[in-house]
Records
---
Amino acid sequence: MIHIVCLVKQVPDTTEIKIDKDTNTLIRAGVKSITNPNDLAGVEEALKLKDTMGAKVSVVTMGPLQAEGMLTELYARGVDACYLLSDRAFAGSDTWATSKILSTFLKTLDYDLIIAGYQAIDGDTAQVGPQVAEFLNIPQVTYLSEITSVTKTAITAKKRTESEIWTLQVDLPCLVTTLSDMNKPRYMNAFDIMHNTDKKVEIVTFNDLDLDINDIGLKGSPTKVSKTYVKQVEPKSAKQVMTEEDAAKLIAKLLYPYMEVNGDA
Amino acid sequence: MRNIWIFIEQKDRKIQPVGLELLSETKRLLKDDVSLTAILLTNTHDQKDIDLMTYCGANNIIIVEDERLKDYDTTYYSHAITNLMRDDRPDVFLIGSTLEGRDLAPRISARLNTGLTADATKLDFELTEERLKLFATRPALGGNLFATIICENTVPQMATIRPSIFAIEENKSRTSKVIIKPFEIKETSKVQILSKEKLAHKKVELNKAQVIIAGGRGVSNMFSTLKDLAYLVGGEVAASRAVVDANIEQKDRLVGQTGTTVHPKVYLASGISGAIQHISGMDKSELIIAVNTDPNALIFDVADVSIIADAKKVLPLVKEELKALRAYKTH
């Protein structure tokens, strides 16, 4: 039976974040936390494989202790083991440091397939999956639209590019990243809720891992945020009298990002 | 001299615009004060490829040529690049934020233990005697916030940059030095392409269009130009009540209270006066550009860009401008 490990992140529901127009700051209070949608699709994909061919499904997350609630819900969907990497020393980690922590823990597990969401809605970086794969020295396939088959030694999967769908065969162990529209996550079911009440989330701290303190947290992160600012609401512009040529140049510049490369007009 | 390397993505032997956009932008920002190196991984190249990179500002062009580099492969591509950086790392390494770039860049940053900013939309540089510092600005938290990211202690300072943000600028008097390198790697990729199929092109509906080119009474005899424009930007043509009532366009093109409500990324209103019934169907658009000869046209009340000019004369010129810009994209 293969062991599938899903990487999951708890994120603020960014669609609910609003801007305080008086202070130009984000209103975070009252914004609920959700399981990152792309990650949830990864868990569902793993559970489908468990249903069809039998597999052990584990979930790993890094974050504050409040993420335990999210993991308990994943137990109720049928996950077999949940790990929460949580320590003050992890706080402020950028993607490099986060991937360092996750991969250090993953090395202690006996995994065949790692499934991560393509990107998290609070960061949109899509970097942690490939960086974890690099630290583990395993192959990766990002932006998966479908896992078509899994054997003991390889998977076949479909990946989207901007204009094509590629069918790929990848040797195990490997890491893939998934998209939220590839499936519809199941609900928690009564059977799994009943049978998983005794399952505990295993908390993993800095002391449990073979990590250098200088590699993690704010201090270990190669990138730093130098400043942040809230998107300015552009004032409706003044009317401009323009020559036809200048008007055309301005409009073309605004339309340019949407231009398609195919066809003739 | 400080140096910047820029990854030039190619698909089916065609150089993708984003690499040329990044060359053009860094050249614009830093002039001749730094050395720009274009990195092209491919199975074969021709003089046209070299000219493109040179004209857009590359001082050096490194081409790694090997049959295994024909299609993108994470293992082969990442090693081809980190091999080049074994002896000498650039100060900055920029990659287009395409699906390929976002697969490749994090792999390289992890291997080189350096910082990477994802999907930046703005670049700034600070050049001093000691160093070249990159400030990469990106949207965060679903676009609610912008963050400027720096990478102070490691090189290369890496960033992926969103395509189509910067304009391509060619200068045919530029020259460059070209180095062609073989690809050396011991390992075999564990990923194998079994097949490829083209994605079917779906018909866009008015309320799903990203860009809408709308016309009113002022341009009622210009709808073929509007259609050409919409085609160029992958958008749809829409019309005001007056145009539909005159049987120039079908009702399914009507925007407004009695037609379709739309909220595209860009709404170009040409020759539309902006009756309430029309405005109520399009005022939620992200960017509204209005062109009208009448300075008192109501459309200007909701427009983000208000241009007083004759749309009949402007539209054909926009088409020419876009076609000139498109020439770059189809290289």
Note: The longest strand of chain A covers residues 140-150.
---
Amino acid sequence: MPTELAEPPAPVLDEPEPGHSLWQDAWARLRKNRLAVASGVMLCLMAVACLLGPIFTQGYAEQHLDKYATPPSSEHWLGTDTLGRDLLARILIGGRVSFSVGLCATAVALVIGVGYGTISGYFGGMLDMLMMRVVDIIYAFPFTIFVILLMVIFERNFLLLFAAIGAVEWLTMARIVRSQVLTLRQMEFVEAAEATGVPRARIISRHIIPNVLGPVIVYTTLTIPAVMLLEAFLSFLGLGVQPPLASWGVLINEGAKSMEEFWWLLVFPGLALSCSLFSLNFLGDGLRDALDPKASKD
Amino acid sequence: MALLDVQDLKVSFHTRNGIVRAVNGVSFALEKGETLGVVGESGSGKSVTCYSMMGLIPQPPGRIEGGTAFFGGVDLLKATKAQLNDIRGRRIAMIFQDPMTSLNPYVRVGEQIIEPVIIHERITRTAARKRALAALEEVGVQDPLARLQAYPHQFSGGMRQRVMIAMALITNPELLIADEPTTALDVTVQAQILELIKKMQRNHGTAVIFVTHDLGVVSGFCDRVQVMYAGRIVESASVGEIFRQPLHPYNRALQKSIPAFQPKGHDLYTIPGLPPDLSKSVDGCTFAPRCEFAQEFCRRGEMKLTEIVKGHASACVRVQRGELVLDGSATSPGS
């Protein structure tokens, strides 16, 4: 998993000029932003650790009841939990769950939301009205009941969790994108493109979508943490990740119950979650600035 | 045959406050290489006329109620999207009022200039870029090679309008529609841009429809002028005639309002009243409520543009009856 989700969708400009595309420019500007680079590196390291780490640690489900909640030591770097399971292993495996839920659900929300919002805003009229009423209806539907329904109808399934979260998060994205597209459609450069005989698909991909990316990226970086928290909430209700598998949300929840005696059970998972959320936010900020050509100093 | 032949164009907008008849029976023709000025105040239907020919009227709320606009054997008003897309940008190009918003801020200027060529011609990007370079040079952009790589925000308003002109003319269109191309620019730049459009027109032999509300601009630039009011053409003549012998009170009132013609120290002349509400249908002459020469019969019947002298048409009933002779301006302004 390279530089996490905040990555924009595949380049929409056709064959960018060598060394000069918007994306290469953005990359050059992003590299100058130290905070964003540090965040990116941090996220990469965490991703690699979560992916490869569990190979080297003890099993996350291995219980050693004789090691009831031992503090950090050379044997268990981050200590053990109340069932004597190695906390480091559990954090790493929990990171896998949290990251993949965050990324996949956000990707689902991103693709559906941007597509839906763009179509609704660009074509307007009756279609727009209908599409937005559908969004309103889904909005009004209680999320928890929706997820419980999904879980009952289908098996408890990891993929379903992504789908359920994504299915809720795309609504706001669609609204944001639609409102942006509505203003963009009025802009003279879109009219000028139409007056030049540019086909609709190209107007959308070349003139509309790049112009909505700024707000979309910012919202995306806000969505990932929101999704991670939602997952924690669902797991807490017993609808998400099932023990012995863990996610950061689950670990924090467990840690919070016993934080007065065993501080490490709360601090380390919390640190992992907040570090990644901070990094995502900084990276998102950096990406937004980098993708805005007006921000360049030359 | 005329390059563009518009007959009885009617465009309306269906809004919550009723049907606004923005263009109400406009007819005109344009020859190859000719420059037609379209003058009128805000809301007189000048822009809507142009937009409807380019298929840029948002529908709904807009609706083209009737008429034809033949261009090279194709009725632009009934053309399919594919037909329109083939004509727009290749044979008809358009430049817009506000150069600050008519370029996409996320795309390099060079890429935007070549867009019409890439779409309409089978050409490699390298060849297209060479064309763009030549086009930028032709419109007088300094250091064009570096400018191709720049983003629109690195250009000033006048420069952007130059870029728009280069972009519009890169495919050598037969017709250029310029919708108030100088309104958003400051006066010195205005003159430069006008000169540039004139030069480009000479070089490429393009016909131009020049929409403006500035009579001064028209006088130095156009071959023929038509004055629009409340969605209709009220007077149409060669540029000299329009100033020398106005045949419609509205045209005369417009000329009287030009500050340069008025003695210093006096209040500026203004046309009393407001343009009519286009959502209400008016009997008779639409200008009658504001016209100092209006008679009772002006408010009845149908307005009709009729040729009074050869090549000079007026919609004023009193002029048509021969009752009214208007004094013209001694000289045309601005030229």
Note: Chain B touches chain A through 37 residues (CB under 8 Å).
